[in-house]
Design a protein that fits this description.
The chain is an alpha/beta fold. It has five helices and eight strands. It has helices spanning about 10-25, 35-40, 55-60, 60-65, 110-125, and strands at about 30, 50, 70-80, 85-90, 95-100, 125-135, 140-145, 150. It has a five-stranded mixed beta barrel.
């Protein structure tokens, strides 16, 4: 049968690893722009997500450059334009636009993200996006959300690699 307690070091290591991974997984801080504007130094170290609208983002481009932002708007889907990125335009009621893009796709984008953006464009629905604001390029996407569907745009689907190709 074996001695009792012989697997104790393995269990202890597994529990330690689990607690370390779960303990380090904290959700990001989300703050409204009005609160961020009053004390930006409070969020300088944290990689906080600033929740704002498109007009505020574009009028405060210097303040929010390089920050992670979350905003919502209508989609004007244009699809692929360049080899290294996939993008669409986010618009608001005043007609202002922001280019939302993902650089990691190369030639083909992930079908779920592309379908969700097209669906929001077809339905004239409001799409919620989040990512890092990099003027003048636009918003490099982290995720998009539409009608309860949340898609991580940084996800790169697995591919079948052929050794001779």
């Amino acid at each position: 049968m074996g001695r009792p307690g012989i697997h104790r070091p393995g269990r202890l290591a597994a529990w330690s690893l689990t607690l370390t991974l779960v303990g380090c997984a904290t959700p990001p801080v989300v703050v409204d722009y009005a609160e961020y504007r009053t004390a930006p130094e409070r969020y300088a170290e944290a990689d906080a997500i600033v929740r704002t609208d498109l007009a505020t983002l574009l009028s405060n481009a210097d303040t929010l450059a390089g920050r992670r932002v979350e905003l919502a708007g209508q989609v004007d889907y244009r699809g692929h334009v360049g080899y290294f990125y996939w993008h669409f335009l986010l618009t608001d009621a005043q007609g202002q636009t922001l280019r939302c893009y993902e650089r990691e796709y190369r030639v083909d984008s992930w079908i779920w993200a592309r379908t969700l953006a097209r669906r929001a464009d077809t339905d004239d629905g409001t799409l919620k996006v989040a990512g890092r604001y990099k003027p003048p390029q636009g918003l490099e996407l982290d995720w998009i959300e539409y009608k309860g569907h949340h898609v991580d745009t940084d996800y790169y689907p697995p591919r079948l690699l052929v050794p001779w190709y």
